[in-house]
Structure to design on (328 residues):
């Protein structure tokens, strides 16, 4: 008898454990709950923090209603693709209804799509754009929601071309710039770098690269690189382009430490329009930034994910516009 009781208890524990350990699913659990698995490349990223918080809030507060509840499980890939792949395997094992994925490495998209296809779980990529052929591996059930990074780069260049001295403080006829890049594996970093310079050329200006290094989207690295560039090139530096605002915040610290002043002897531009940077633009301590609209991107990602759950065919791409942010 005792043996039976202990066996029953063990069984109960196992059942209990599995039901709290799994993410739950409408496939065999509560028919009104849709389980959304969200894999974020790294929680410790200013922009992706705003994005993931809005994504969860929108699903759980705005979209959940009496008939249907969305339950979001967010996991932190910690910048490690192997870790993220494990997390995705867990989501699949737990039979989430849809996966929203901010890849650590865009090149892993094909593996993720294949795994999801085998498990019949639709996948919506966000923020890190995968190659088109990877989206085509499972048409209609795979999509990318994002913003076209070429546009943000172009806006950065145009902001500089529109300044009174067209980005040339020392009047030597060239726009001598420092480029602080994000993770170069990410198309956002590649395109912002390329298109900001292209926009200067398209405006008839002559850009001259003094310095270009990767700061991996990180504020502390942005500060260190800007400091190195200012030490090495001093007054030659007309403009510091940063692929994102976190790094621009770091560069702003280095600019003050080097006794330079934005709007008086140097220009500084970023991308994202973090609240702090919008205030700096208003105050003139940053020349401009570009709104990377995390609210619209989060809403679109959620709506596309729901369409997929409802069995609708997805388009491969859903785009959200960037917006220039400068002093009025
Ligand atoms: C944002 C960066 C962010 C990166 C993460 C970019 O679109 O501008 O701030 O670090 O995405 O992948």
């Amino acid at each position: 008898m005792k043996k039976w009781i202990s066996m029953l208890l063990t069984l109960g524990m196992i059942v209990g454990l599995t039901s709290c350990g799994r993410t739950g699913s409408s496939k065999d659990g509560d028919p009104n709950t849709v389980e959304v698995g969200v894999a974020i490349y790294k929680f410790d990223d200013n922009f992706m923090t705003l994005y993931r918080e809005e994504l969860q809030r929108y699903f759980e507060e705005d979209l959940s209603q009496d008939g249907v509840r969305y339950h979001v499980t967010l996991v932190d890939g910690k910048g490690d693709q192997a870790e993220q792949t494990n997390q995705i395997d867990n989501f699949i094992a737990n039979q989430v209804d849809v996966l929203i994925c901010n890849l650590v490495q865009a090149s892993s998209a094909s593996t993720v799509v294949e795994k999801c296809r085998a498990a019949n779980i639709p996948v919506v990529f966000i923020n890190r754009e995968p190659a088109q052929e990877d989206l085509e591996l499972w048409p209609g059930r795979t999509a990318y929601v994002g913003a076209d990074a070429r546009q943000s780069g172009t806006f950065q260049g145009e902001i500089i071309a529109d300044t009174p001295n067209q980005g040339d403080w020392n009047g030597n006829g060239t726009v001598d710039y420092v480029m602080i890049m994000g993770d170069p594996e990410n198309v956002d970093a590649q395109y912002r770098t390329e298109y900001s310079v292209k926009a200067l050329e398209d405006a008839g200006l002559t850009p001259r690269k003094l310095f270009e290094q990767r700061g991996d989207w990180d504020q502390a690295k942005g500060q260190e690189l800007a400091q190195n560039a200012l030490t090495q090139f001093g007054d030659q530096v007309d403009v510091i382009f940063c692929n994102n605002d976190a790094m621009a915040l770091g560069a702003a610290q280095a600019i003050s430490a080097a006794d330079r002043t934005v709007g008086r002897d140097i220009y500084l531009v970023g991308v994202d329009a973090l609240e702090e940077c919008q205030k700096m633009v208003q105050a003139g301590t940053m020349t401009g930034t570009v709104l990377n609209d995390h609210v619209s991107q989060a809403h679109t990602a959620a709506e596309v994910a729901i369409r997929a759950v409802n069995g609708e065919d997805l388009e491969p791409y859903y785009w959200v516009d960037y917006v220039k942010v400068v002093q009025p």
The first strand starts at residue 33 and ends at 40. The pocket of beta-D-glucopyranose is lined by residues 41, 45, 47-48, 127-128, 182, 186, 188, 217, 244, 246, 271-272, 292 (CB under 6 Å).
